[in-house]
Amino acid sequence: MPHPHPTPSPASFPQCDRRVCDQRLSWLQDQMAACCAGLPPSPLYRAFTFILTFLLYTSFHLSRKPISIVKSELHRNCSSLSEVQAPSGQPTLHSDVDCSWKPFDKSNYKQLLGAMDYSFLCAYAIGMYLSGIIGERLPIRWYLTVGMLTSGLFTCLFGLGYIYNIHSLGFYIFVQIANGLVQTTGWPSVVTCIGNWFGKGRRGLIMGLWNSHTSVGNILGSLIAGYWVSSNWGLSFIVPGLIIALMGLVCFLFLIEHPNDLKTIHAQNPVLCSNHKPKKTWKGMNGHKELYNYKGGKDQSWENAELLLPPDNGRVYVPVQQVVVVKSESEPSAISFMGALRIPGVIEFSLCLLFAKLVSYTFLFWLPLYITKTAHLDAKKAGNLSTLFDVGGIVGGILAGVISDKMGKRATTCAVMLFLAAPTLYGFSMISEFGLGPTIGMLVVCGGLVNGPYALITTAVSADLGTHKSLKGNARALSTVTAIIDGTGSVGAALGPLLAGLLSEGGWNRVFYMLMTADFIALLLLLRLVMKEMTHSKPLPSTAVELKEH
Predict the structure, then answer these.
(1) Lower CB density within 10 Å: C or N end of the chain?
(2) Model pLDDT, residue 265
């Protein structure tokens, strides 16, 4: 029996205005959303991604921290050798007859230790510029997994130097360089992932909380390395290496790079939605329930979806179980290195981070040794005490995010904290000579003021600039922008520990003068952006470079 309403030819389709078509598309989207109404809501996926990326990058910093704890063990004070006892029940593989670990037993041990830091951080800085560009062109999950597994391998190799009694400086330098290169896979990947899942509404607060992984990783790394440092410092590297490798496997199994990946999974697995009845049903219109397909031509403003039109009255007749939405958006192209540099604010914040990170990483790599020499504590106690700096860093990062969200002025927030950090560093160098009590308080304050700007620039500011309005919604630029900012900062991270090793020969005061100078230069580099922010009569929801949501 012939159908009472034959399918019309495309030429007979009536035209409809944009408003009507938008309503039809909205209805189609509602039906697709209703299909999967029983699945976990997106906030759960956001929370899962937040926690997972937090733990992933915590393991990165956890594996970097042991070298700063072990330094005081590689070159020990021979006069107090008998006072350092191994924890009960733990075997000691070496008798340490020569007191220090060769080749760090010479008078130039500070330069040698500084060279190891410089090897890691210089490789990290160079690799970071390439990492963002490569990361944009590879799946984040695979890229991050490979980086974490290889980082675990090289971290364990450093510890095996103790197990197999290796005394070659070249071996330790090679391991540090290789580890520095593979660790660059971490930061652009996790920032891109977290930026994909969270908008700009409360980005400062969210990123401030999330960026505490840096300090949490440093604290855990200090405690783990400190547990074995006096008896078997090889395990101070091997255990963190195994942890980051294990987290690499977790990343491969569970990381969801982008919310769109969930839509792809649901589209490819309709069985996921088969057990859920839609909230809305289609009963037809004008007695018609048939499905007519018409794919609009390129000249139509609604070309990204299939328009389903009947022959009369321009009405839509769509059975729910046959709805298909076709998305034909072209994949955005990766941004070039020079294109990223032209984004307003990238150069200023990158150079500011160079000096801010110089200060932060000097504390990261040299604070335990400084406490050992000035407070006359053993390596384990000095490592535990140094974690207070990271506790202050957690508070400072969150505080910087909250203040910048409320004020709408990222650069001004960083500038104020940098201004306060310089005199605080000088006060710490003076107060640390008066015992543990004042030292503990100043460590927390210094950690907050030093790590606050560093945390804000590497997270919220990087995410803001990576979604700048000039990019026209190209989210793939986020990885490159993040890599440029953090890569430039890593140049300072490489210079800071190296200069600290050289300047400490003439006294620790020179090191603190260098740190205060770096803070002052970082402040000067932000003055133009601060002045631009201050000219606005009303607070902006993002940085001084007029960022908007995409």
Answers:
(1) N
(2) 56
